[in-house]
Amino acid sequence: MRRLLFILLILGVIGGAALWFVALPQWVTVEPIGFYSPNLANGRAMFLAGGCSSCHATPRQNDPLHLGGGLALKSPFGTFYPPNISQHPRDGIGAFTELEFINALLKGVSPDGQHYFPAFPYTSYQRMTLSDVRDLFVYLKTLPPVEGRAPAHELSFPFNIREGVGLWKLLFLDGEPFRADPSRTPEWNRGAYLVEGPGHCAECHSPRNLLGGIVHAKRFTGGPNPAGKGLIPDITQSEDGLASWSEDDIYKALTSGKSPDGDTLGSSMAEIVRNIAQLSEQGRKAMAVYIKSLPGAGAKPKP
Ligand code: HEC
Ligand code: HEC
Predict the structure, then answer these.
(1) What's the CATH fold of domain 186-292?
(2) Per-residue pLDDT tens digits for 23-38
(3) 86 CA distance to ligand 1 middle (Å)
(4) Does pTM top 0.90 for this prediction?
């Protein structure tokens, strides 16, 4: 009996150590990542598609490029305050190296080796190409430094433990790059990349489980608004979703913010449209093609 307990104890220690080990932050370690001549216009497009300013712009002022952070983002786990990502060397990310920036976006890991909380939607940004992230890094360098730091997050236990995010990542961060589907058109693939990667559309338009992970089978079928108020619509081809919208309707909505019945898209979508509307026409068209191809989960039973 004692021996059995001893063995169980040893197994427990090994299991705990293994769990601790696998939950350690994973890095992109390709250094040096080689010469690269950045494309600033593309960096700006990634900034717009990624909606960085929706979360990181200083609230209660009108400049979307004033990235001082501090907006209160409510969630079921508490309130997150996105940090200052301006070029300020102390309060912002002015001192980040390119590789540190890449690791933040693709791995959700900070320069000092801590996990970021997934309220920073790196679960989508991980699909971005290295060159898009590098262009974005250079674009951010052109924006002004802003002094001041955002308040600390107000999270309830145990969600405030960063180490725990390592376990969360094992479940919900697959570390896979975007893979094009050769059976589809280049336009569809471009749309898939923009929607699944920088656009992070699924982060809002999908229901989440109790751990805050996206429910795979219901990706894009909408769900409760994490901020607490109302529902986020289903954007698949189900009856409750966009089955009655044409590709062009979706394109127009992403361009003008108007739905086919003349309503204006509001709430957090208004800001998304303001950004996406500044992308190239081809980019928006490609997104519409991809969204129109999302299979519906089937009509829901009528109450
Ligand atoms: C939905 C809101 C949201 C969006 C959109 C968003 N972020 Fe963030 N970001 C956050 C939050 C919240 C954190 C803090 C995470 C933490 O403390 O663990 C963060 C952290 C960061 C950090 C780490 C800063 C530091 O001081 O360590 C960087 C860099 C960053 N974001 C860049 C970006 C870029 C670039 C984009 C656009 C491609 C972007 N973010 C879009 C919410 C967001
Ligand atoms: C920050 C959360 C958020 C993100 C990210 C987001 N959306 Fe939305 N979206 C919403 C909300 C909220 C609405 C509902 C707006 C309303 O009711 O006025 C909406 C509505 C829509 C609609 C209209 C659906 C309908 O039935 O009226 C479309 C189409 C849409 N979003 C597409 C997208 C695409 C494409 C992306 C990625 C580029 C995206 N959304 C990213 C929150 C988001």
Answers:
(1) Cytochrome Bc1 Complex; Chain D, domain 2 (1.10.760)
(2) 777 777 665 567 788 9
(3) 11
(4) yes
